[in-house]
Amino acid sequence: MNPENCKTLGEKLAKNIIEQFGTQNVSQLCQIAQINIRYESWNPVTLGEFDRKNNTICVNLLAKINHKEIITHELGHYFIHKEGIILSRNDEEIVVNSFTTFFTE
Question: pTM higher than 0.85 for the full model?
Fold first, then answer.
């Protein structure tokens, strides 16, 4: 998939989620979707991770960016998988980055 199509997919996914859940607030979306947030420290190879098995977003406390940005990014991964969208890792990252621009803290 080309990058522009990935960005468009991220926008469409975000707009559908906002319409479906009636909010752009990340904290509210996590509550509605029953996603747990866990804060841990690990060698900063990744800033955050989504644990599908436990429905948990793990945020790296050593990350140098806003933790809400990490949560929003991982929430994008959650909704991509929930919708059954299959993408390459690179395409998924582009979709998620586009998705995150639609949400607030």
Answer: yes
Q: Say how far apart CA 61 and CA 40 lie, in whole Å.
A: 6
Residue range 12-55, pLDDT digits in tens: 999 999 999 999 999 999 999 999 999 999 887 789 999 989 99
Q: Are strands 48-51 and 56-60 parallel, antiparallel or unpaired?
A: antiparallel
**Single-letter residue type at 85:** I
Q: Is the pLDDT of residue 71 over 80?
A: yes
Q: Which of 78, 55, 69, 66 is nearest to 97 (CA)?
A: 69
Mean pLDDT of 64-69: 90
Domain boundaries along the sequence of the chain: 3-100
CATH 1.10.10.2910 fits 3-100, yes or no: yes
CB 103 within 8 A of CB 28: no
Q: Are 40 and 59 in contact (CB under 8 A)?
A: yes
